[in-house]
Amino acid sequence: MLKPANLFLISILFTCFSTSIHGQTANNSLYEAFDKTVGKNNSGLNNGKIHLNTLRQINDTHRYFGIDKYRTGNVIYDNQEYTGVSLKYDVLNDVLISKVNGENNTIGINLIRDKTAAFYLDGKKFVNLNFGNPTVPSFVNGFYEEYTENSKLALFTKFSKTKVEVLQNDGVFYRFEQNIEYILGYQGNYYRINSAKDAIRILPEQEKNINDYYGMNAAMERTDKPMFMKNLIKYISNFLPTPTN
């Protein structure tokens, strides 16, 4: 017959074992519920801080690219591609935000920029020119819309926003103003570019073709500068030799 002390010890061990099993079961249930809500394929996108927007906006301006809404896109994050993800691009802080698909979910996650190689949003491709590329010039920073034509030239468009404080009777608000800069990628090098004259400086052998393009599209530079720059790259590419591997 077991002594009372032994019975007491067995009771403790059984209780601990049962608690451990119960705790593990509870943890498993939590993980299963998380995966069900988040989706196992998208759970890696929770690796970041919760996105907070405490700036009160004014004049229908905001800090995001395009519109102040999540849109479906794709992202290459932490060496894995995620498709059909709800995304927003915070241009003010140059951060991509993902929203895990789930019922009534409104929480966005700031993805770590150093882990974000590229993303596709609103029919545009954005690349992190610093990702895995330590030799880029110091003026290259973060995400750029990439436009290429036959792999000869690449135009990288940088969208940024600055916030302007506006004092009103009911407190402080902010107006957001957009800025756009351009970088030309050619033969593994990066150049600042903002006009047809800059293109001539970078590609002097194409001076005649660039001047011809400018003569036909000078008005577009004033009314739609991003399209003017893209069409300039497309036009010049027609006269460049095909790259050899």
Features:
single chain, 245 residues, alpha+beta, 11-stranded antiparallel sheet, 11 strands, 29% helix, globular, disordered N terminus
Provide an overview of this structure.
This protein has 245 residues and is an alpha+beta fold. The protein has a domain at 47-192. It has helices at 4-38, 196-202, 207-223, 225-237; strands spanning 48-50, 71-77, 80-90, 95-99, 108-111, 116-121, 124-128, 143-149, 153-168, 171-186, 189-192. Strand 3 and strand 4 (95-99) form a beta hairpin. Helix 3 (207-223) runs antiparallel to helix 4 (225-237).
Percent helix range: 25-40%
Overall body shape: globular
Could you tell me how far the N terminus lies from the C terminus, measured between alpha carbons in angstroms?
A: 85 Å
In which order are the strands of the major sheet placed? 1-5-4-3-2-6-7-8-9-10-11
The pLDDT mean sits at 84
Contiguous helical run count:
4
Itemize the secondary structure elements and their pairings:
Elements: H1 4-38, E1 48-50, E2 71-77, E3 80-90, E4 95-99, E5 108-111, E6 116-121, E7 124-128, E8 143-149, E9 153-168, E10 171-186, E11 189-192, H2 196-202, H3 207-223, H4 225-237
Helix pairs in contact: 2-3, 3-4
